[in-house]
Design brief:
3 helices
Length: 73
């Protein structure tokens, strides 16, 4: 979250949005968290869990892009 705060400082006065990747999955109701855990300590299962989160966030991001494109028609 420290990195997120640092990046958001660069967007002041712009239309840019900087956020957490999993926010898209959370907004779409696909996950209950907005942080990706470190898979290193979870073995193979930890990496599978992180991949699942990334896939869900990707689906949420795509849904947000499509919704924004439709709204701007």
């Amino acid at each position: 979250r420290d990195n997120l705060s640092s990046l958001r400082r660069y967007t002041v006065g712009t239309h840019a949005h900087v956020g957490l990747f999993l926010e898209y999955a959370k907004q779409a109701g696909l996950v209950n968290t907005d942080e990706v855990p470190d898979p290193y300590y979870g073995g193979a299962r930890g990496f599978e869990d992180v991949l699942d989160l990334i896939e869900r966030a990707s689906a949420g991001l795509l849904a947000a892009i499509v919704a924004e494109a439709r709204a701007n028609r």
